[in-house]
Amino acid sequence: MAHEHDTQAVEKARTPSRGLAVAASDPVQNPGLPPHRERITDKDPKAQQRAVRTVYTLFYISVAASIWAVAAYMLFPIEGEYATMTNIRHNNLYIGLGIAFALLAIGIGAIHWSKALMHDHEVIENRHSTRGSEPTRAAAVKVFEAANDESGFGRRKMIRNSLFAALAASVIPGITLFRNLAPNDGKDPVQLLNETMWKEGERLVLDPEGTPVKASDVTLGSAFHIVPESLSTLSHEDGYLEEKAKAIVLLVRVLPEQLIESEERKTWSYDGIVAYSKVCTHVGCPVALYEQQTHHLLCPCHQSQFDVTDHAKVIFGPAARPLPQLPIAVDDEGYLVAQRGFTEPVGPSFWERH
After folding, report:
1. CB 253: neighbour CB atoms within 10 A?
2. How far apart are alpha carbons 161 and 154 in whole angstroms?
3. With contact defined as beta carbons under 8 Å apart, do 67 and 169 qualify?
4. pLDDT one-digit tens code per residue, 279-328
5. What confidence score (pLDDT) does residue 22 get?
6. How many angstroms separate the CA atoms of 144 and 151, rounded?
7. Buried b / exposed e along 121-151 (16+ C-beta atoms within 10 A)
8. Which position among 43, 108, 129, 286 has the lowest Cβ density within 10 Å, counted as fewest Cβ atoms?
9. Alpha-carbon distance 112 to 156, whole Å?
10. Residue ranges of the domains in the chain?
11. CATH level 2 (architecture), domain 189-338
12. Pairwise CA distance, residues 292 & 145, whole Å
């Protein structure tokens, strides 16, 4: 009896119940769309007008913020005698706030417009094949006309005009800032980049400590960030940042037998120590990542890679030419010094070079 009972239980478990079989065969019912809930702006004309005023006010706030960004650029100049740390901080802060509020106001205004004023009825769009026929094009025109009617873009002139004004004003700060991307004193950019503070006998010092570096301090696999010793004599008003940006160097030591040096450059290194410009030849980012095992320098901005052992030539990425090399030697006290300055312009390669 026990065996017969167990067999019946197994058979019952293997046989799906009638209820499950029916449920599996029934098609899934379309629940339909939920009831439409009208917004307060759909029911109350005054609320709708308040929403309209809010949207175009936000767009005009964006215009004002863009104008403020341009005004901040003029109120806090950072050129020549005005290139103080205070002016630089204020310039960055207030221009940034102006641009941020300009874009934020456009975004909030557009979202509020879509949520409070644009058509919000649920619709169902059936799939259909699309072809470039006349009826299809005519239907596309109708879609745009319907979108215009539902959004009120053509009807709500205050919103439309304020949006156009905000979008137009939002690019003005960027255009204003572009004027400072190139020298405006009439000097040749190539010549400016070719003239750094490196000269014969200039000691290599650590950045930012300003400590002179001896050849014995540079161990295998190490990488030091280097500036000219005379840089410390400059103030920010005298162009400290500009000169540092051009003269900064990365100092690396490898085994002397690992260096691949042309006849011209065999005297540019010292016992496996080489010095290359830290300014990437792509767009000027700092090349500051050194891979000890592969002897590659990596630019973090766009992943250009340079081979330290082979004249810092480009082995990957968008950089157009090798990093300029600084010829170095050792003075009577064992400190590393420059033999002379760079023999080519440092920095990006998109400027015309002789």
Report:
1. 21
2. 10
3. yes
4. 999 888 889 888 888 899 999 888 899 999 999 999 998 998 999 999 99
5. 47
6. 10
7. eeeeeeeeeeeeeeeeeeeeeeeeeeeeeeb
8. 129
9. 14
10. 40-121+137-178, 189-338
11. 3-layer Sandwich (2.102)
12. 63
Sign, Cα dihedral of 333, 335, 339, 340: negative
- pTM score, whole prediction: 0.52
Please give the Cα distance from 166 to 159 (Å, whole number): 10
β-strand partners of 338: 328
What type of residue sits at position 58?
Answer: L
